[in-house]
Write a structure and sequence with these properties.
Layout: E1 2-5, H1 10-17, E2 25-27, H2 45-60, E3 64-73, E4 80-81, H3 94-104, E5 112-123, E6 126-138, E7 154-156, H4 168-174, H5 176-190, H6 192-195
Parallel strand pairs: 1-2, 1-3
Antiparallel strand pairs: 3-4, 3-5, 5-6, 6-7
The protein binds inosine 5'-triphosphate (ITT).
Inosine 5'-triphosphate binds near residues 69, 70, 115, 149 and 151.
């Protein structure tokens, strides 16, 4: 069965492919001929994930799934949230985003935060959502060189180091994205629509 992952991020494609049955032909956006930027205009992470998957299903008539993620900080009432990538502006700079986050948290004791990923699967017209959450806190300064985005300031609960101080394997064992992908993969493996192919 053909299944599109609504991304052109080859790293994400390979990660999911390695977890699926070989009978599932996982395709990127470019592989199905989708060259346009997918809109993310609903104002929520779950909404954007649904919006992207629905767009691809309706316009390209292929079963597909899309993901969206963000960082929610308790003391900032859930910001940067759905705007995590553009928190400090449309230049999408990870270091500007972190600087603004640390500035907005100056003097605030409550550093609790979480990463969230929502994946939406469109299968024969029906939508299914899978959520992954990683709880943690925002450090006082940047530590580590690995990962991306807010990783240098995010310390997962139960750890003394930031996500940027972990190897990719370590991060992939606990990350919000990995947790959502795990749920999606279990659903696909046990779903007769897929095993019948
Ligand atoms: P694509 O949508 O093109 O895949 P993106 O950068 O927008 O890329 P996401 O929607 O997954 O990626 O995440 C939105 C932002 O949330 C991202 O730019 C980061 O600032 C932050 N973020 C998400 N996952 C993260 C992670 O694992 N580590 C650090 N920051 C993360």
């Amino acid at each position: 069965m053909k299944l599109c992952f609504a991304t052109n991020n080859q790293h994400k494609i390979e990660e999911v492919k390695s977890m699926l049955l070989p009978s599932i032909d996982l395709m990127s956006l470019s592989a199905i001929g989708c060259k346009e930027e997918l809109a993310e205009t609903t104002g929520t992470i779950a909404g954007n994930s649904h919006q992207k998957a629905e767009y691809v299903f309706r316009n390209y008539k292929v079963n597909c799934f899309a993901d969206d993620s963000g960082l929610e900080v308790e003391a900032l009432n859930g910001l940067p949230g759905v705007d995590s990538a553009i928190y400090a502006g449309s230049q999408r700079s990870h270091s500007d985003n972190i600087s603004l986050l640390l500035k907005n948290l100056q003097g605030i004791k409550n550093r609790k935060a979480r990463f969230i990923t929502v994946i939406t699967l469109f299968l024969n017209g029906a939508a299914y959502q899978f959520e992954g959450i990683l709880n943690g806190s925002i450090g006082l300064d940047l530590r580590g060189e690995n990962g991306f985005g807010y990783d240098p300031v995010f310390i997962p609960d139960g750890f003394c180091k930031t996500l940027a101080e972990m190897t990719m394997d370590e991060k992939n064992k606990i990350s919000h994205r990995a947790r959502a992908i795990e749920k999606l993969v279990k659903f696909i493996i046990w779903n007769p629509e897929f095993s019948r192919q």
